[in-house]
């Protein structure tokens, strides 16, 4: 190469060759640059989006805790129904109206995913919600505690990877949803892997369109396989019990609630 | 191309090195802030929702 270059120079290469050589060099550098940018994009998506989302989600939880701190002592326990709910004596679960788009519904605690697993549940399933704010509630589905299907989506990888360990849930695992009204305890039942077009998993009775629901479901959707999106992994849970906010958090997650709310 | 840019930066060698580092950092910030979020809209690696209506 060096010899060739020297030879070229001494022989005073014609202008066309010089221009061509420069053009080839620029194209080569641009291709290398494009390769580096693509590698950086992978690093950004697999690592940096998690850093960003984790920080943003802690903020959302902090804001929720602050709102809760202001509202909880003032608001008296909602009027309780007479029908007893499974295992607890707090009556029918209180069902709130859904907040506006990107409004915080509450916090989800899943001890199976680790003692520190506290993720915000936010209204909406558009990328602005799912990419930064946490679990996104499908606006067409029920709210926590309602008869029907409370469905949320979350990223398996990237953007906080909120449902990364969804495949590790074991039937019987508790999933806690804290809202301003109280604590909804769901019990995980099963996973299902479906194609992305299977909107029937969001039906009031999952996968059974047109059926009138009698149970209170929690459905979580995430992508499958872990680093792909060809399929969706679904996790179904059923409401087991509920406690109004005035009754305090369930003993199993009292420490986590204190840690999450204490941040505010 | 990069050699040409480096030769045409003003100042002594150390200043040109500093300037090029700043330029690289600026390019990184622009990519993270604008380019990568835009690119991720067109990749489907992380889509976690059901159905197309919600997208």
Automatic annotation (TrEMBL), chain B:
<keyword id="KW-1133">Transmembrane helix</keyword>
<keyword id="KW-0472">Membrane</keyword>
<keyword id="KW-0812">Transmembrane</keyword>
<protein>
    <submittedName>
        <fullName>Uncharacterized protein YhdP</fullName>
    </submittedName>
</protein>
<feature type="transmembrane region" description="Helical">
    <location>
        <begin position="13"/>
        <end position="36"/>
    </location>
</feature>
């Amino acid at each position: 190469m060096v010899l060739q270059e020297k030879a070229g120079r001494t022989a005073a290469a014609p202008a066309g060759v010089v221009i061509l050589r420069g053009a080839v060099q620029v194209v080569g550098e641009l291709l290398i640059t494009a390769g580096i940018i693509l590698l950086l994009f992978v690093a950004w998506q697999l690592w940096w989006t998690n850093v960003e989302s984790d920080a943003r989600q802690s903020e959302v939880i902090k804001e929720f805790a602050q709102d809760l701190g202001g509202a909880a002592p003032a608001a008296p326990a909602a009027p309780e129904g007479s029908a007893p709910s499974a295992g607890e004596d707090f009556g029918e679960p209180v069902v709130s109206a859904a907040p506006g788009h990107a409004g915080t519904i509450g916090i989800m605690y899943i001890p199976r995913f680790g003692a520190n697993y506290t993720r915000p549940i936010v209204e909406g399933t558009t990328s602005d919600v799912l990419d930064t704010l946490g679990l996104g509630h499908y606006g067409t589905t029920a709210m926590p505690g309602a008869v029907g299907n409370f469905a949320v989506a979350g990223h398996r990888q990237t953007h906080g990877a909120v449902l990364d360990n969804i495949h590790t849930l074991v039937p019987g695992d508790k999933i806690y949803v804290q809202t301003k009204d109280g604590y909804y305890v769901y019990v995980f039942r099963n996973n299902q892997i479906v194609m992305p077009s299977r909107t029937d998993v969001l039906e009031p009775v999952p996968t059974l369109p047109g059926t009138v629901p009698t149970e209170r479901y929690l459905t979580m959707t995430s992508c499958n396989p872990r680093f792909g999106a060809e399929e969706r992994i679904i996790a179904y849970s059923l409401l087991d019990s509920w406690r109004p906010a005035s009754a305090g958090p369930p003993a199993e997650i009292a420490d986590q609630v204190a840690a999450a709310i204490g941040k505010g | 191309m990069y050699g040409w840019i480096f030769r045409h930066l003003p100042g002594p060698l150390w200043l040109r090195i500093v300037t090029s580092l700043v330029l690289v950092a600026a390019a990184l910030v622009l990519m993270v802030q604008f380019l990568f979020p835009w690119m991720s809209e067109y990749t489907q690696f992380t889509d976690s929702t059901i159905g197309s209506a919600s997208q």
